[in-house]
Amino acid sequence: MRPTGGTAPSDTSRARRKVRLPGEATPLYTVSQAAQLLDMQPAFIRRLDTEGVVVPARSAGGQRRYSRIEIDHIAALAGLMDEGMTLAGAQRIIELENEIADLRRQLAHPPSPTVAR
Hints:
Order of helices and strands: HHEEHH
Number of helices: 4
Number of strands: 2
Largest sheet: 2 strands, antiparallel
Strand content: under 5%
Structural class: mainly alpha
């Protein structure tokens, strides 16, 4: 019988091993897995690729592979569309929000002035 649950080793345990997990930009998820995570139809996710809104990586066999970043993007689009936005409108809102975030980062960390000689 296989035990259920369990306790992870403590930070000081000799049995503890670091596991390198893939980053959030690593394309891991198939269309079916992304659709299941997002609770939506795979056809909608494929449509986003066809229209060039969210273009996933492709496996060696040509299958779409989505990263967590792309899945978050799809979720944001779907949320805006649920509020009545068109796909184009939802995409534009996300683009503008990203531009604002970039400008805020630039304002928070302005480049150092160069000294003329």
